[in-house]
Design a protein that fits this description.
Length: 474
């Protein structure tokens, strides 16, 4: 009887132990399945934030009860980490003036990379017209190292410039001798440095949030050395990160392009900042080389024509400033210009037919066209280059105008194309203009003029400030 009792106990313990082992195995499988599900969710999630914005991971709490003792992390590449930052760019930017929260994000953003700390993994630079953020990549995740923006007194960014290992947000004052505000960022000897300097209040300079003297600031960020002739002109503007566009479909349109690509397909080599030499020496032109003293080269003759309805009231008119070269220049130049003016007259007379309709009779002002001579940018024995402003006013609140550049061969009288002066194709011109200005180049929408040393491309519509110059090779 005792043996039977002992055997019964043994069988009971054996069954109980076996059941526990089975239950433990089931629980382990369940926990393992939960971990896999967590990992899958983390891989698919667009995780945002400041310090762990692009790390898909399973932390210890999520694995509580697991038989494994270590914490499993899913490390992503720096490219994938930065793509997630760009994908959620609005949430990763500071909003110091509440523009984004009030008006929404317009999709235009600075996007660039540069290896500040020289560890072979670049930092990511993103920004809007209000603020810029810099991210680094460490141990499988992206971390924000800086929020950069101008003080509220300045209110925004006019240029995001770079040179060597320095990034500078610039806010421009008004007027030729006005001062600027600068927010500077760099990395030296194992530390990131951020500084603020104001031309108007130099005694309030800071580095990493601490007040410093003007002299101390200039030791770290030599702004005066970077400005041309200690003046407002900032020669870094020719090396600037251009605006891209980002939409809600996880797509990006790079500067100089008109095509959307998936952020997952982004080639970071296309947004890495490059020196002027790498950019084929295309740069933003801010000082127009236009000589508006026509008496040095010739004279202007005004032409005016009015169009009247049956009641004798003017319903349209045009004015043309017809510039003609003097006898020091070949006669054939004036013949070419006369043909140009005649084509304008014909176009304006055709426009007059539009305004004879009754719908324009209630316009507050009389519609008109006006061709204004802006000046001469080059006058040599080989070529001359002139600039005109063609104004179209339809009687409403504001006129509309376009700029026309005309470059003429002095020997033939031919209006020549830009390939007479540079060797770049339209595709190469577009790539370079996009790289330095963010604008999309279209030969139908852009024109050019020459100086003695440069070729300057400009957008026909003067509301767009973009003018990009490059060295003239012929």
């Amino acid at each position: 009887m005792k043996k039977v009792y002992i055997l019964s106990i043994f069988l009971f313990v054996f069954c109980l132990t076996g059941c526990r082992r089975i239950n433990s195995e089931d629980e382990g499988m369940k926990q393992e399945q939960e971990i896999v599900e967590k990992m899958t969710e983390a891989e698919n999630a667009d995780v945002i934030g400041e310090t762990e914005s692009n790390t898909a991971y399973v932390n210890e709490a999520e694995r509580k009860g697991s038989t494994e003792e270590d914490v499993t992390e899913i490390s992503v590449t720096w490219q994938d980490a930065y793509k997630n930052i760009i994908r959620n760019i609005e949430s990763n930017l500071a909003d110091p003036y509440n523009f984004i929260s009030e008006f929404g994000f317009n999709g235009c953003a600075y996007v660039g990379i540069h290896d500040f700390d020289k560890n072979d993994i670049p930092e990511l630079i993103i920004g809007s017209a209000e603020s810029v953020a810099v991210f680094t990549y460490e141990e499988g995740k992206a971390e924000k190292v800086a929020d950069l923006y101008e003080t509220e007194d300045w209110g925004g960014i006019n240029y995001l410039c770079y040179k060597d290992n320095h990034l500078v947000l610039m806010s421009c004052g008004n007027g030729e001798n006005a001062g600027n505000g600068y927010v500077c960022f760099t990395y030296e000897q194992g530390e990131y440095f951020m500084g603020f300097y104001d031309d108007y209040q130099p005694d309030e300079a800071t580095i990493n949030g601490e007040p410093v003297s003007k002299e101390e600031f200039l030791l770290q960020f030599d702004i005066l050395k970077l400005k041309q002739n200690n003046h407002i002109e900032f020669n870094w503007r020719n090396s600037a990160i251009a605006y891209c566009k980002v939409n809600d479909e996880d797509e990006i349109m790079l500067a100089g392009s008109d095509e959307w690509i998936a952020i997952d397909d982004l080639d970071f080599g296309l947004i890495e900042w490059k020196s002027l030499e790498q950019k084929n020496k295309y740069y933003i032109e801010e000082d127009e080389a236009i000589d508006n003293d026509e008496t040095k080269y010739g004279a202007i003759r005004q032409e005016h024509e009015e169009f009247q309805n049956q009641n004798g009231n003017n319903f349209f008119y045009y004015d043309i400033e017809c510039f003609y070269f003097d006898s020091d220049f070949p006669v054939i130049l004036n013949e070419t210009l006369q043909a140009f003016y005649d084509s304008k007259k014909e176009a304006y007379r055709h426009d007059s037919e539009t305004y004879i309709d009754e719908e324009y009779r209630d316009a507050p002002n009389v519609p008109f066209n006006n061709l204004i001579f802006r000046g001469i940018t080059y006058a040599g024995k080989d070529f001359v280059s002139l600039l005109f402003n063609d104004v179209d006013y339809e009687g409403g609140a504001h006129p509309y105008s376009v700029l026309d550049g005309i470059t003429i061969d002095c020997s033939t009288g031919e209006i020549v194309t830009v390939d007479r002066f540079i060797d770049d194709t339209d595709e190469e011109i577009g790539e370079q203009i996009g790289a330095v200005s963010g604008a999309v180049y279209n030969p139908e929408e852009w024109d050019y003029y020459i100086t003695d040393r440069t070729v300057v491309f400009f957008y026909h519509d003067p509301r767009f400030w973009t003018a990009v110059a490059t060295k003239r090779v012929r």
